[in-house]
Amino acid sequence: MLQYILKRLLLMIPTLFGVLLVSFVVIQFVPGGPVEQMVYQLKGRGAGESAGNTSGSAGAYQAARGLSEEQLSQIKVQYGFDKPAPERFWQMLKNYATLNLGDSWFRHASVTQLIWEKLPVSMSLGISSLLLTYLIAVPLGVAKAVRQGTRFDAATTVLLMVAYAIPSFVLGVVLLVLFGGGSFWQLFPLRGLTSDDWESLTMMGKVMDYLWHLALPVTAMVVGGFASLTMLTKNSFLEEIHKQYVTTARAKGASERRIFWKHIFRNAALPLVVGLPEAIIAAFFTGSLLIETLFSLDGLGLLAYESVMRRDYPVVLGTLYFFTLLGLFGRLLSDMGYVLLDPRVQFGKAGEGA
């Protein structure tokens, strides 16, 4: 087991290197970089115009007509483009090795600070939607497996397919129109996570106000997301129900309740349990751009989008590195969960492994 963990930790290094290398190379050819944007701003034009009218070549800078070579050189030095690309990439790797994600070019703050500032919003959405998804999907999947082939199973399957087909953004718009004061009922707030009188509320009042603001965005995220988990739960339980050990337990006179909870549930829940580490990490650090935009929530999704549009490369690459690293650790924890929960899985033996 220890050998497997060390092997996976070592494999993270080339994986991270490959992700960063590809991203860094792609960024070099994206038009409308920070140098071009600064040039156009100095000439009194918008940054968006530079993105549409420049070719993206690092050497020409057609937008720099009218600026002196000294001014252009100062702009390049300001953003670090006075150094060749390999040197900039190597410096970035050395900083990332010490978890120094650099500073934003446009927000006047470190990338780490920006992540921590936006994290509470994405955490609130992610954790709430994850809890609701599991609380709804797992019991529903178990009920569908136990009632396989009944009208309940058929009706819930139709509802799940409809829910899965509705994009979360479209559902969010419908919820705002119906319950956000659009054309029908003013039951929930339109934007933000807190009310204007947040500071004057009691502790219980703050909790209720927070949940009140989360109701619509979390509902929009959950409805379209729990269908796959429900079907996974159902199929996992159906597979266990039809195995030989269940038939043997029934032949020995064991009650259906004992068979379900002692044998079927423990084995069928394994795929659900081992996927929790990855799901929790994703819930903590993954932002939903469309939902955050629709409900005016300033989270990680909106940060990533704005950073890409403004060509804020330190934020783009820093957050990509951080989230990729967390994702790799989440996958490692999931694999370790298989070993801890299922003694049949042994990564260290010959013929088995990653």
N/C terminus separation: 11 Å
Residue runs with pLDDT of under 50 for 5 or more positions? 45-64, 350-354
Give the averaged pLDDT, no decimals: 79
Structural class: mainly alpha
Please state the second-level CATH architecture of the largest domain: Orthogonal Bundle
Rg of Cα set? 26 Å
Report the principal-axis shape.
Answer: globular
Using the coordinates shown, work out and report the CATH topology of the largest domain: MetI-like fold
CATH class category name of the largest domain? Mainly Alpha
CATH superfamily of the largest domain: MetI-like
Number of domains: 2
Strand and helix order: HHHHHHHHHHHHHHHHH
- How large is the count of helical segments? 17
